[in-house]
Amino acid sequence: SGVRLARDPGSSPDRERLTFLRDTLAGLTATPKAFSPKYFYDGAGSALFEAICVTPEYYPTRTETALLREIAPALAEAIPKGAVLLELGSGASDKTRMLLDAAPWISAYVPVDISADALEGAVARLREAYPVLAVHPVVADFTHAIDVPKALAGRPVVAFFPGSTIGNFTPDEAVALLRSVRGRLGPDARFIVGADQVKDLEVLLAAYDDAEGVTAAFNRNVLVRINRELGGDFAPEAFEHRAVWNPAFERIEMHLVSREAQRVTVAGQAFAFEAGESIHTENSHKFTPASFGRLAEAGGWRIEKEWISPDPAFGVFVLRA
Ligand code: AVI
Questions:
Q1: Which residues pair with 163 in a beta bridge?
Q2: What is the pLDDT at residue 43?
Q3: How far is residue 197's CA from residue 314's CA, in Å, rounded to a whole number?
Q4: Dist CA 95 CA 90 (whole Å)
Q5: Spatial separation of the C-alpha atoms in residues 16 and 257, rounded to whole Å
Q6: CA distances from 271 to 25, 29, 241, 257, 268 (A)
Q7: Element (H or E) spanning 66, and its range?
Q8: Is the CB of 283 inside a 6 Å radius of any atom of ligand 1?
Q9: Residue 254: what pLDDT?
Q10: pLDDT score at 245
Q11: Ramachandran region, residue 2 (left: φ > 0; alpha: ψ -120 to 50; beta: rest)
């Protein structure tokens, strides 16, 4: 496509595969078994996530998009003239357009995503739609330190982290991420974060177990990926997709539950499953303005402004260092 992508210098396809292998073997050895949700997002997984976003049950994307559209003029006030917009986990960069349109004085956009495929497509479309905007894509796991490209040094930076992806981290990981962004962007930084809110259980559970089974396919896709990339022999259909609410941690958990006793091999190592034994594949924390404020504070930020949509409740927060 001709799109040039900067890569996290600490990563390479070989290294990424080894990390995936090491994490997967560790996850299958742990009790209870668990994987990191970041491994959902290969090409097929990213496409399945986009498909989830348009199911009738998955409200977060459309709710946040409508909220962002409505509050874009107010958000623009938090974006200084000439600012660099740095987006964590930019994916298709669809929501970004609302900020770019509301704050045309944004001088550069740095989308950071773990998927080179997703970045390439998004960057080509953005360059066409915003010909004067400087776009500097970076392929990286945004939980590693991310630096603003040298060419943009000295400009004010506004970080953007929509989609409630912050909810996919444990509180400790979320605090570490908030701290790392705070440390990189300096004392005048601003951070715009989308965070899904605690709500009616039925609405939450349906969002993570849609009738068409798109979320189930997304969840099982990690097994398909392990088979292909790590030499695994998972039978994905031998695992049931399950979404449950964990009230103690205020989070939806996704699991893959073994339908029967079975043995699975990955990279030559065998792992036994009991019938009903699960692999915990994802947490999706839900917040209240108060719980999100505590998390932000632990990460070195304070909430400057917040907007919560009417039902289904979704929050957008402007954080200041
Ligand atoms: C990307 N992330 C915020 C989604 C979520 O809602 O936790 C991922 C997802 N998992 C199941 N459906 C969507």
A1: none
A2: 86
A3: 5
A4: 9
A5: 27
A6: 9, 8, 19, 14, 10
A7: helix 59-76
A8: no
A9: 98
A10: 98
A11: left
Q: How far apart are CA 260 and CA 276, in angstroms?
A: 7
- Under DSSP, the state recorded for 83 is P
Q: Can you tell me the distance from the alpha carbon of 295 to that of 168, in angstroms, rounded to the nearest whole number?
A: 14
Q: Ligand 1 centre from 284 Cα, in Å? A: 7
Over the chain (321 residues), the average pLDDT of each successive run of 10 is 75 87 98 96 91 98 97 97 95 93 97 87 95 94 84 93 97 96 87 98 98 98 98 98 98 98 98 98 98 98 98 98 91
| H-helix or E-strand spanning residue 307 | strand 302-308
Q: How far is CA 82 from the centre of its chain?
A: 27
* For ligand 1, atom 6: residue with the closest CA: 284
Which one, of 228, 226, 213, 266, lies nearest residue 40 by Cα? Answer: 226
Tokens 């991310």 appear where?
A: 146
Q: Which neighbouring-strand residues pair with 108?
A: 84, 134
Q: Tell the residue number behind the tokens 């590693």, with chain if given.
A: 144
Residue with tokens 């959902």: 40
What pTM does this model have? 0.94
Q: Report helix, strand or coil for 107.
A: coil
Structure tokens at 310: 């009417």
Cα 183 to Cα 169: distance, rounded to the nearest angstrom: 19
CA distance 132 to 143: 29
pLDDT at 125: 95
Give the position of tokens 């989830």.
Answer: 52
pLDDT given for residue 1 in this prediction: 53
Ligand 1 binding pocket includes 164 (Cβ within 6 Å): yes
Measure Cα distances from 45 to 117, 203, 225, 229, 295 in Å.
11, 23, 9, 14, 29
Q: What is the whole-number distance in angstroms between the Cα of residue 320 and the centre of ligand 1? A: 26
pLDDT score at 170: 96
**What span, in angstroms and rounded, lies between the C-alpha atoms of 142 and 140?**
6
Spatial distance between the Cα atoms of 75 and 100, rounded to a whole number of angstroms: 11
